[in-house]
Design goal:
Blueprint: H1 3-9, H2 19-51, H3 82-114, H4 120-134, H5 138-150, E1 160-163, E2 166-169, E3 172-175, E4 177-180, H6 185-212, H7 219-236, E5 241-244, E6 247-248, E7 253-254, E8 257-259, H8 261-287, H9 291-299, H10 304-334, H11 346-357, H12 360-389
Antiparallel strand pairs: 1-2, 2-3, 3-8, 4-5, 6-7
Helix pairs in contact: 3-8, 3-11, 4-8, 5-8, 6-7, 8-10, 9-10, 10-12, 11-12
């Protein structure tokens, strides 16, 4: 049969019946529709702002703010600009997010393992903890910590003394503040070099293990580089640090470093709320490990702690990490609830800027960009960590 005959015998497929062509046309139409909608939205916003005599643009960021902020991790005063004020809010958001993620991970892993404990009391308490915090809105948890726990603490002059110059009152946690001399930078450099040396040692040990099957002990050298080296440099440089201890006056506490109750309420609430979800993720990850793995480990004489640390948890990570990323993102975004107790995070500071300037579109755009950036950064790190912890089959 000739080529012409074959072409005549095989009917041509209609343009819209070809899956690839149809999908391409649909995507082009959707892109055009989205761009048209965005153009209409932008033009409509600009027109409405012009009718309301509201100037658009981000020029207001260089204008004097004129208001104070309760907690300033970076240099700021009322004479600073609106842009500087928003940077303070971003810094406070990052601080509470990192601190909350750290504590939520630790508590979540402990409670998650406790949910599988053979001890009835430990298992029961872990279950009650998870069921209580998972079924309460995070805003109520924040208000509980602020009004139900921290606000009922005694006044600073009757503050609880926790030892080592640390006091707890309704004004927050007051603790000694470390004042470092310039030469203390050498200790920080020694610590960084110790961490780098530990990473290099771990990679060399892993390469040696894959090549020979022999696993070298690295805990001692790692502790020596990470802890021993900085301590030695710290001692050699003459202990270049002094402590400013809080002093109890007639009505207040002076000096030291103060952790305000607004931060404590938000930090504790987000940590313990998110930890309840992390606990369930950890429990599901542990249960996903085949029972034969635990039986084989027990047959080799491993204790229960060794079984968890060396066999179960490393295999459970492949199940734990992906949903754990979602909880970290939720905690970061839930930090915006700090507005309810006066914690100066991004939304709280941005609301003050919005009320004073009327630049609602620009402030909301800053919120969206910052939270999108934080979410992308957390997701990228967790994806990298997930790739590092993935099981590699031979």
């Amino acid at each position: 049969m000739t080529v012409e005959a074959q072409s005549i015998s095989q009917p041509r497929v209609a343009l819209m019946r070809d899956p690839k062509t149809r999908g391409l046309i649909i995507q082009i139409v959707m892109i055009i529709a989205i761009l048209a909608f965005a153009s209409w939205l932008i033009n409509n916003t600009i027109r409405n702002l012009a009718q309301a005599n509201i100037a658009s643009g981000f020029g207001f960021l260089s204008t004097r703010a004129g208001f104070d902020i309760g907690q300033v991790p970076i240099e700021y005063s009322s004479n600073s600009t609106y842009g500087r004020a928003l940077l303070v809010g971003i810094a406070n958001t990052i601080i509470v997010a990192i601190a909350g993620i750290t504590l939520a991970t630790i508590v979540g892993f402990i409670v998650g393992i406790g949910r599988l404990s053979r001890n009835y009391i430990v298992r029961g308490l872990s279950t009650v903890y998870v069921e209580v915090f998972r079924n309460i809105p995070p805003l109520l948890v924040i208000l509980f910590w602020y009004f139900g726990v921290l606000s009922v603490l005694p006044l600073p002059r009757q503050a609880y003394e926790l030892g080592f110059g640390t006091y707890l009152s309704n004004r927050g946690l007051q603790m000694p503040a470390a004042v470092f001399e310039p030469i203390a930078l050498a200790t920080l450099i020694a610590f960084v070099l110790g961490v780098i040396g530990t990473v290099v040692l771990a990679k060399a040990n892993k390469k040696h293990q894959l090549k020979t099957g022999e696993r070298r002990k690295t805990l001692g050298p790692a502790l020596g580089m990470i802890l021993g080296l900085p301590i030695a440099v710290f001692l050699v440089t003459g202990l270049p640090v002094t402590f400013e201890v809080p002093e109890a006056t007639r009505f207040n506490l002076r000096g030291g470093w103060q952790v305000k109750p607004e931060f404590l309420a938000l930090f504790l609430a987000l940590s313990f709320y998110t930890a309840s979800f992390v606990a369930e993720i950890v429990r599901a990850g542990i249960l996903s490990v085949s029972k034969g793995q635990t039986e084989a480990a027990s047959a080799l004489g491993l204790t229960r702690s060794q079984l968890l640390r060396l066999v179960v948890v490393p295999q459970a990570f492949r199940v734990i990490i992906p949903p754990l990323t979602s909880q970290y993102l939720n905690l970061t975004k839930n930090s915006s609830l700090g507005l309810a107790v006066g914690y100066p995070e991004l939304v709280a500071v941005g609301s003050t800027v919005l009320n004073q300037t009327g630049q609602s579109v620009e402030v909301v755009a800053v919120w969206m960009v910052v939270y999108l950036g934080l979410s992308v950064a957390v997701s990228a790190f967790m994806n990298w960590f997930n790739a590092k912890m993935a099981l590699v089959e031979r």
